[in-house]
Records
---
Amino acid sequence: MSASSAPPIRRDWLAKTVAGVLLGFTLAIGCSGVFAWLADGMQMSVRAQLAMWMVMPIWLGIFSGVYFFRSGLRAWAWLGGANALVFGALAAAQWL
């Protein structure tokens, strides 16, 4: 395979990376908060530990999956929408 036939490097990897770092972290925090709010039947110590330790696997899963988006703009749009949905659900759960 010659160097001229190799596919070009996509230039939006930086946008995807930043979206995965920033929006992935806030999405993981939001998912942790929704879990902590909805898991009322558990002891407080167990619920807090689960909520705390579930942030990193969720964040890393989002961060590794962000490169499947076609563009950085789509990554920002989808993760921003997911953040709005999760934090809206958290606000609704606390309000109701």
---
Amino acid sequence: MTAAPTLPERQEWTVDDLGELPRDLRYELINGRLIVPSPVPAHQDLAFEIGFALRGACPPDFIVSSDQSLRINRRNEPRPDLVGVRIEHYGRTPVPVEDAVLAIEIVSEHSEFRDMVEKARLYADAGLPAYWVVDQNRPEISLTEMVLGPSKRSYEIVNHTTGVFSVEAPWPITIDLPRLSARRAGILERIRLR
């Protein structure tokens, strides 16, 4: 019997070190820290719902992908929950951040600071045009829309809503957040009644 594989011990990781990881390990590299996420079904369910809304009017030159690595620099290879990328990357990973037009993170129980602050700084500094954060940890699901400001190095929050969210860029997208909140409330009620 062979021993189970173990992860190399490091305080600081770079993209060069990622080749030592098991090929089937899902990871993110954020500011040199290796993060191994394990989302719960509620998180994944919401990601699917939002992904379907994104795909509805996605132009033919782009594709919506989930759990896709974006190469930013030697210390950062985040894996947004959803991302809009140029179609040329249909069979590739990681995708260069320059070929992404939108990244979306769904806040998990322990990821609010990382999603709202660390990743926002990281994506803005890399020049990603749009970044959305969906918060599912309150009674009503909310979406915060951020776009690059005039300096092209930081985001401006242009919308924060729990209502129906509609934008024209990067393509026309509408997400019915009240419907998603009601759906989640119905699921939680069924669980409570069991």
---
Amino acid sequence: MLISIRKRTVPGLGERLIALRKSRGLSQQVLATKAGISIPRLRDAERFGAATTETLNLLAHALATDVDTLLGRKGGE
């Protein structure tokens, strides 16, 4: 059985990720390590707003926030 993992593009995600990462004083390397993802995966999210649900969950946890904040569904920090 083949399982498809689909990236979705979320408008504004990249900007929110960068702002949160910088507000916490984290480099891309440190955030990627904390989240348990590769740097290219983080760069895709920051540059293109493209991420899987799994990546969003990992980044939200590493940034001590929630997915709704990353997606812009509620007020930012």
---
Amino acid sequence: MSEPQEIVETRGDDRVDLLKVDANNDGRTDVWVVDTDGDGKPDVFQFDTTGDGSVDITMVDLDEDGTPEQVVDGDGGLPPA
């Protein structure tokens, strides 16, 4: 049984993927850049570091200044669709 993941606080309740990147050309997304409050600016960054297509690290930049306030293992309660 896997450990429960930490839930992150975001700027809003929506999820709009601004960018999805397949960095290693394996056909699966490795990087997600997400807007959660509808302002068109990213505030959540997610990374697949193991190459399995799932989120391994989530970073949240609540004030959108380029420095994350929170970094957690897993999807932070924000799984990609």
